[in-house]
Amino acid sequence: MAEKRVRLAFLAMDHGELGTFLLAFAAALLGGKLFGELAERIGQPAVLGELAVGVLLGPSLLGLVPLTAGILLVAEIGVLLLLFEIGLETDLTELIRVGGVAMVVAVVGMALPFVGGYLVTRAAGFPTLTAVFVGAALTATSIGITSRVLSEIGMLATREGQIILGAAVADDVLGLVILAVVSQLAATGSVGMGTAIRAAGLSFGFLVVAIVVGGPLGRFLVRFVHGAKVRGVLVAVSVAFALLAALGAWKAGSAAIVGAFAAGLVLARTDRRHDIRNALRPTVDVFAPVFFVSIGAQVDVRYLNPVVADNRPALLLALALTVVGAVGKFAAGFSAWGRVRRSFIGAGMVPRGEVGLIFAQIGKESGALPEPVFVAVVLAVFATTFLTPPLLAALSPARAPAARPD
Question: Which fold has domain 17-395?
Answer without folding.
Answer: Na+/H+ antiporter like fold (1.20.1530)
